[in-house]
Structures are given as structure tokens and as C-alpha cells.
Amino acid sequence: MPTEGVWISPSGVKTVIPLENNPEVFTSLLHDLGLSTELGFYDVYSIDDASLLAMIPRPTHALIFITPAKMYYASRKEDGIPCDMALEDMTYNKTGDDPILWFRQTIGNACGLYALIHSVANGQGKQYVQRDSLLDRLFTEAKPLQPEQRAKVLYDSEELERAHMRAALKGDSVPPPAENHPALHFIAYVKGQDGHLWELEGATDGPVDRGLLPPEDDVLSPRALELGIRRFLNHAEGNPNFSIVALSNKD
Prior knowledge:
It catalyses: Thiol-dependent hydrolysis of ester, thioester, amide, peptide and isopeptide bonds formed by the C-terminal Gly of ubiquitin (a 76-residue protein attached to proteins as an intracellular targeting signal). By secondary structure, the protein is α+β, with helices and mostly antiparallel strands. The chain has a single domain (7-249), classed as Ubiquitin C-terminal Hydrolase UCH-l3. The protein is built from nine helices and eight strands. It has helices at residues 23-33, 50-53, 69-79, 111-121, 134-142, 147-155, 158-168, 222-227, 229-233, and strands at residues 7-8, 14-15, 39-43, 60-68, 184-191, 196-200, 208-212, 243-249. It has a six-stranded antiparallel sheet with strand order 3-8-4-5-6-7. The chain has a two-stranded antiparallel ribbon with strand order 1-2. Helix 1 (23-33) runs antiparallel to helix 7 (158-168). The radius of gyration is 17 Å and the shape is globular. It starts with 6 loop residues before the first strand and ends with a strand.
């Protein structure tokens, strides 16, 4: 039986209340799922002002970029990256974490949840996932599977559903009903075990390799920002309605 507040769409898709774009909500949810309390999310107020960037503890293990739909689709079109594909049309079929563990999004309104999961399933963040936690169990089960079966691991997890809904009811704003679909996209950036910057979102045909980073660079380095987030900001057209949060060790 679905958790209270979860909506099943007319097409039969489980749909949840979206997460508020709030570092405290993100941090609370990941701790609830089994991430060490040593890590937390921080607002990135500017990627151009050195004094504001200095407020973020380094190294940064992951970034989550929240972009409005117009900016998102303009960038995807320019890069020739298909998105919003039907599961049966996907070509990505990797198993394992080769070198990235990626999940196709099949839960409606859960863009934020998938970005959070991608941010700690990969890179340095995964070292802080506590043994035998829900995250650890989900990743262990999903890792050897093909994308369709891997997506089902998250979709069918009642524990994950309940944890998400607890977090979705927190924050500073009134939670919208699950039937509402926000026009925002959540994209995670991590540095993979291969040293590459990876762009992870459940609506694309697999993870997007944005290129090799120098060994000393984290995901908030100038090179990483140029390869990743700035590609979207080139299409901002003066729209300030985007945000960035960073996953780092707590001070």
C-alpha cells in the first residue's frame, strides 16, 4: 500500500511529493537513509565570487544543480543529449559501477531524490555510506543489474518511499500535492573513480561523461564548473532561478 501522500498517476506511475530545494532537507534525508553525519549539503551562493566559494568546505564530493526547464532543454538540445526517453528506448545497458552507478528515474516527481542518491552512490561520497544502511543495501542489490531491473530496486523500496515522504513534508514551504509537477530538473555531478566528471540524471540515456579532471580538482573546481554547470548557465538568458548545493564534510 502506498505511503500517505503518494499518488498513483492514471498511467500507473508512483508519484511522490517533490523535495523542497533546501540543503537541510537534503542532508536530513541522506542521514535518514544511512549517510554518515560527517557530510552535509551547503548552498553555493556564487561560482564567480571567490569569497563566497571559500565558504564551502573542500573537497566537495558532489554538486546538485537545480535548473528551470527552459535552460535545461536548451542545453540538452545543443549537446545532442536525448532526455525524457521511454525505458524501452534506452541504449545504456551497463552493469556494476563501470565507473558510475547510475539509476533511471521511474518514480514521478523524484528528481531530487535521484540526484541525492547519485551524489552518494559514486565518487568520494560513497565512502561515507554506512554499512548495512538502506543506501548500502540498495546499492549492493542494484549494482550487478541491468538499468531496467536496477530502476525497479528503487521503485519497489517501501523504506525509500517512506523516507522520501518524511523529508518531503519538511522545509520552509507548504508541500504541494504529488499531482503537481514542478518545472525543475535536478542534476548531480561527481568525480568518478576514473577521475572523470560525471553528470547524473535519471531522465537521460545513462550517465554523461564530461571529461577528465586533474587529480587535485574536485567538482567545484573551475575546470569542473566549466565542463558541467556552466554549459547550462550559457542558456540562462538572465534567468536567476537556478541553484547549486554542494556535498562536503562538515566543518
